[in-house]
Amino acid sequence: MKRTALSAVLSFVLAAILACATLAQATVTGGPGGGIVPPPPITGYIAIDLDPCLPPVSSNPGSWATGINSYGEIVLHNPNGTYVSWMGFGASQLETPSGTRVYAKRINSDGIAAGNIDYGNQWYGAAWDWNNAISVQTPVKYLADINDRGYAVGTTEDGGARIINVYTGAWRQVSPRYTGSFPTGINNNNVVCGSILAGNTNSPCVWTPDGRCTLLPRPAGITMGGWATDINDNNVVVGGCGPFNGGYRAVAWQNGVVRVLPTLGSECRAEAINNAGQAVGYSSDGLRQYPVVWNGTNRITKLPLLQGSNGGYAYDINNQGWIVGLCSKYGVAHATLWIPLSGRRMPF
Known about the structure:
By secondary structure, the protein is mainly β.
């Protein structure tokens, strides 16, 4: 999505809306001496339905959001295709070659989205520029993540992992062929996280830019199963391990130490982490699945649902703490944006 003066205007409008929401709670009269009583601090999140910004779908409706960058550009999906929207103000579809389907997961601060093109009998990793035109097709099955320097990571048909420069098309191998490598995240230091086949099970791991692989430890008592999903610029990794007391659990790794993240009562999974150490994903209370955010490793917050929803999932978080995912509203998925009300900043 092209950044123009319109973006500045829309940011002012959104800021005004949020300010009005704050001011609505900001003054209470009748305090000592008849003066104004300072309001309690506003905390929590506001949930915004992004589905209306997408073209309508005639059958099998539903939408979800998988990526958000520091400028508030969001990757959105519905059965008709993949789109980029600036904070829900309209949406433009990614270039889609005739007879194919495209899917992008993440978007970097330059507005470059990364994902894949499905030609029916062959997948190719691809990136789309800020005009939503295809900028590169790559010799990998898909691109799982892209950093702000323009490097994306993906897996090859033969089980290896590669880092791709989406501006030049140049690539280098970070995990050899036939290793069962499954990269999922890359930070701005070009450190990659994911999983690799070790023995007969997938093991969470990180790869340094020179291709060195380090297996990440599992929590005590867990001997099989594990994956890493995202890594921030401080090399903090999130993911999951299990089975753990009857279900899979979200975990975080820092400096070689693994920590099990708190849950709402049952299993949970972490999908993304920002540079402030906030992670997002889902947690179940045993009945329903809810979108959640972890602030550090010891506090979990259930995100608010759209009216009429009974569950949801959070997929990504930017460095301002803005979160995207979906809510299940009357049985239909609705792409959702969560904006923090406490200490919020516009995403610029």
